[in-house]
């Protein structure tokens, strides 16, 4: 036999037709199915990695063309086989078949970061897979992930340049033969801004329902390891998971390396009780051209063929490609879907299997013999019936023929040519653009302080009194200043505060902010909801969140919470707090004990431009014995904003207060009330010493120490003063806030059931 003669190789002159173009003969690689021609059932000839039915009877060989007419004559089994051939892995096959049988309109989705060059897997291989999906009757949605590229610091972190790259990539696909009839390109920045409320609420809920550890597992989708993660790289998988539901995708048709985040979407369905889960149809990851490269890398130009490569580039790269004469085995799929590098993996054969033979009707001719299937070609090469030089020469011709229409498009189309020139300018001398510096907003003309309302069912009176005093003190020091009380109705959902349900959180924030006003919060303090800031600045707010996230390490944020983070949503919450402060041009942030260290994040991010002020609490301490604090405070150990008259009387009556003491909880509350009112009156019978009034805390403490003032008399006075002070608040609770109070009581019941 001659070199290349294999008994299984078939000479198929009818499949070797040539077409003349400009006087030259051009080799062709795939089928155009005539719309008017009947289609016979395809022969069952499949490759395991990239199976596709070969040998359509009523077809002529022409360049890569759409197959969108196929589904009109295909039965359910044929549509299933065609769709299934796209994926190296399918989760779950039964669900895919069920989709085909029961859903008239199926939507596939893939997302791509406009990050620079497009390699052949993203170009030709993707075009082939998209054409299969549309031929099977699916709509294919491309999510142009410009905001995701921004989070990943691509193209220097400049959004406008990222968008230019996105337009360039779309031009490549058009030229590469992708069937655009049923393909939709949606830009993430535009669609998210247009539907900000729906999208971001979903992101927050996914963050709320997942631990940081779970989301960190997804970060391999960006090629990142845990110790190197920025906050943006935690936000990324939360958004990518949301994309699936936001786009109403039935099938996630991404690479195997995106497996973990796609699985996160299926797990989220379990968490929210959604029965219909997205099917994961993960395509094969093409190997890098060098030895030991499990997949191609855009950072290594010689690891892959790129769609803009010249004929000389293609020849050089393939000639130098690693090409062991070893039978290729099916790769094991790791937990995160990433391919494993092995010495046996042959990238040249990988290109043949997944690029050349993936196209319908593709055949390969070497030394006069035609190989109808990939398996035939592999066997011939492994058994040394095809030389390495001949194999590579054939692949060079095949790849250059596939890239020829792309080169022609960018040479002849002025708009496409201009886009390519711009993209090339972004990586002069082979290097990417340096990261663009994000300028901070200018400092405000006058002092502006902001404090956040705690998202709690019941706010301790000590915290409330500290907030009121801090606002009054700030206004006194800065007469022309502004103070804003922010109600975190979005970020509290992300942090899973109270029940994590927005209705409960909004009711708690409304009730407690109104009670704060009733207790004496100055009228000049402006009360705002995060919702107003976010929906009033749909683009700027979230770009600001992403900007803050890009510049801060996740580990630093975890430290601000003391390492005690319940969920991934808390990371988003702290980013939102900084973005809010920037949007409001805040000069100061007032913190309570409930804020911990999280407000220092804004100070560090702005390099000290935002100052942090600590509200002074402790004037209304816990009511237990100071030297015998319980492990967990009881319901009667703390005074709250919403206490009714019975609560107040009971708590003060039970409060620790021994005779002949100068310091205890009741004395502390009495001193606080004295400071507010200027005097503290004690009413008692003449036999008990008669009524007395105190103008200074020192006089009050002296009588308590000497025994001249009995704890029971002091408690009676303190109870009455607290009742007087809370009268307006209690009136609100029984009046205009009554409906919200009912919501809070129901929320309390929900929480008690969880314990």
From TrEMBL:
Top EC group: ligase
GO molecular function, one term: ATP binding
Ranges where the record places region Disordered: 1-22
InterPro entries referenced in this protein's UniProt entry, alphabetically: aa-tRNA-synth_Ic (IPR002305), Rossmann-like_a/b/a_fold (IPR014729), Tyr-tRNA_synthase (IPR050489)
Catalytic activity: tRNA(Tyr) + L-tyrosine + ATP = L-tyrosyl-tRNA(Tyr) + AMP + diphosphate + H(+)
Superkingdom as given in the UniProt entry: Eukaryota
One protein family per Pfam: tRNA-synt_1b
One GO term (biological process): tyrosyl-tRNA aminoacylation
Keywords tagged on the record: Aminoacyl-tRNA synthetase, ATP-binding, Ligase, Nucleotide-binding, Protein biosynthesis
Keyword check for Protein biosynthesis: yes
Family assignment from sequence similarity: Belongs to the class-I aminoacyl-tRNA synthetase family.
Function comment: Catalyzes the attachment of tyrosine to tRNA(Tyr) in a two-step reaction: tyrosine is first activated by ATP to form Tyr-AMP and then transferred to the acceptor end of tRNA(Tyr).
PANTHER family: TYROSINE--TRNA LIGASE, CYTOPLASMIC, TYROSINE-TRNA LIGASE
Annotated protein name in UniProt: tyrosine--tRNA ligase
Organism: Leishmania orientalis
Lineage: Eukaryota, Discoba, Euglenozoa, Kinetoplastea, Metakinetoplastina
């Amino acid at each position: 036999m001659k070199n290349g003669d294999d008994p299984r190789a078939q000479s198929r002159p009818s499949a070797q037709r040539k077409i003349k173009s400009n006087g030259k003969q051009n080799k062709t690689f795939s089928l155009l199915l005539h719309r008017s021609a009947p289609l016979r059932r395809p022969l069952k000839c499949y490759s395991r990695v990239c199976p596709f039915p070969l040998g359509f009877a009523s077809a002529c060989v022409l360049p890569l063309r759409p197959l969108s007419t196929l589904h009109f004559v295909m039965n359910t089994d044929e549509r299933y086989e065609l769709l299934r051939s796209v994926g190296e892995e399918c989760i779950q096959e039964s669900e895919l078949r069920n989709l085909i049988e029961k859903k008239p309109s199926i939507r596939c989705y893939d997302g791509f970061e406009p990050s620079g060059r497009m390699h052949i897997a993203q170009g030709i291989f993707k075009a082939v897979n998209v054409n299969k999906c549309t031929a099977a009757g699916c709509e294919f949605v491309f999510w142009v992930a410009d905001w995701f590229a921004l989070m990943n610091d691509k193209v220097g972190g400049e959004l406008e340049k990222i968008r230019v790259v996105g337009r360039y990539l779309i031009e490549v696909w058009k030229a590469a033969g992708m069937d655009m009839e049923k393909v939709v390109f949606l830009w993430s920045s535009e669609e998210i801004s247009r539907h900000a409320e729906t999208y971001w609420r979903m992101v927050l809920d996914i963050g709320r329902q997942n631990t940081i550890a779970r989301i960190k597992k997804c970060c391999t989708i960006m090629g990142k390891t845990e110790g190197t993660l920025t906050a943006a790289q935690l936000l990324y998988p939360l958004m990518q998971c949301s994309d699936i539901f936001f786009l109403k995708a039935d099938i996630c048709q991404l690479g195997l390396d995106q497996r973990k985040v796609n699985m996160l979407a299926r797990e989220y369905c379990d968490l929210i009780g959604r029965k219909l889960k997205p099917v994961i149809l993960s395509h094969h990851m093409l190997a890098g051209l060098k030895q030991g490269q499990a997949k191609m890398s855009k950072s290594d130009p010689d690891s892959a063929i790129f769609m803009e490569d010249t004929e000389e580039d293609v020849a050089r790269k393939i000639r130098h490609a690693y090409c062991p004469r070893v039978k290729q085995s099916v790769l094991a799929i790791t937990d995160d879907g990433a391919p494993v590098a092995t010495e046996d993996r042959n990238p040249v054969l990988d290109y043949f299997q997944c690029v050349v033979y993936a196209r319908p009707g593709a055949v390969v001719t070497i030394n006069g013999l035609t190989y109808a299937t990939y398996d035939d070609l592999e066997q011939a090469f492994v058994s040394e019936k095809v030389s390495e030089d001949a194999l590579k020469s054939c692949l060079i011709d095949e790849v250059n023929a596939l890239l020829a229409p792309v080169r022609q498009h960018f040479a002849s189309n002025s708009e496409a040519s201009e886009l390519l020139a711009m993209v090339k300018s972004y990586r002069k001398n082979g290097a990417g653009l340096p990261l663009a510096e994000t300028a901070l907003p200018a400092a405000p003309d006058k002092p502006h302080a902001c404090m956040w309302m705690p998202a709690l069912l019941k706010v301790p009176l000590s915290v409330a009194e500290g907030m009121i005093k801090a606002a009054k003190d700030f206004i006194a020091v800065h007469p022309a200043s502004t103070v804003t009380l922010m109600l975190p109705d979005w970020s509290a959902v992300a942090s899973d505060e109270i029940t994590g349900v927005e209705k409960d959180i909004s009711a708690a924030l409304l009730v407690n902010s109104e009670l704060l006003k009733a207790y004496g919060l100055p009228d000049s303090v402006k009360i705002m909801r995060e919702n107003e800031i976010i929906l009033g600045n749909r683009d700027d707010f979230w770009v600001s969140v992403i900007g803050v996230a890009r510049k801060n390490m996740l580990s630093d944020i975890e430290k601000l919470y003391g390492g005690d983070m319940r969920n991934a949503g808390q990371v988003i919450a702290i980013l939102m707090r900084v973005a809010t402060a920037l949007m409001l041009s805040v000069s100061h942030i007032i913190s309570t004990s409930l804020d911990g260290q999280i407000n220092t994040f804004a100070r560090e991010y702005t390099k000290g431009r935002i100052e942090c002020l600590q509200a002074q609490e402790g004037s209304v301490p816990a009511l237990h014995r100071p030297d015998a604090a319980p492990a967990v405070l009881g319901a009667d150990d703390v005074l709250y904003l919403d206490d009714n008259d019975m609560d107040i009387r009971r708590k003060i009556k039970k409060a620790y207060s021994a005779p002949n003491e100068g310091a205890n909880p009741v004395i502390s509350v009495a001193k606080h009330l004295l400071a507010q009112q200027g005097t503290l009156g004690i009413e008692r019978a003449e036999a008990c010493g008669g009524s007395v009034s105190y103008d200074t805390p020192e006089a009050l403490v002296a009588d308590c120490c000497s025994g001249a003032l009995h704890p029971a008399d002091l408690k009676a006075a303190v109870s009455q003063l607290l009742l007087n002070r809370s009268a307006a608040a209690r009136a609100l609770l029984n009046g205009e806030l009554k409906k919200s109070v009912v919501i809070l009581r129901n929320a309390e019941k929900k929480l008690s059931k969880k314990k």
